[in-house]
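Supplementary notes for students who missed Thursday's class. We covered one full example, reproduced here. Read the sequence, then the structure, then the short commentary at the end.
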Amino acid sequence: MNYRIFITIISVFLAVFSFTAFQTVENEDPVIQTMIDEEVERRISEYRKVRLQKCRERILKVADLKADSIILALARDDFRMDTMPRPEVPERPERPEIKPPRDTTAVVPLLPVDSLE
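Structure (token representation):
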């Protein structure tokens, strides 16, 4: 009999505890409710701002790495490939026409050859 009383007391205790544990008290004061709502909105907006900032930093980091690798790849390709082609070998010019001198007189030394010795 003691065992039955013990079981009923525990079951009544659990029933009362479960009913009181899940009861909610509604705040009927509108001023407190508006303060709570404002604080919740502030925290949500702050959380979103922090998350967006972290996301932006992560995206910029990845984009920076990709841009750097693209720039390095283009620089390597520029060294391998010359942008200006080699100039062609120029053609040999034509031989100039030899013009005879206008003065056909013989060349004579100004000083006698004997005086130089």
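Commentary. The radius of gyration is 52 Å. The mean pLDDT is 82. If anything here is unclear, bring it to office hours.
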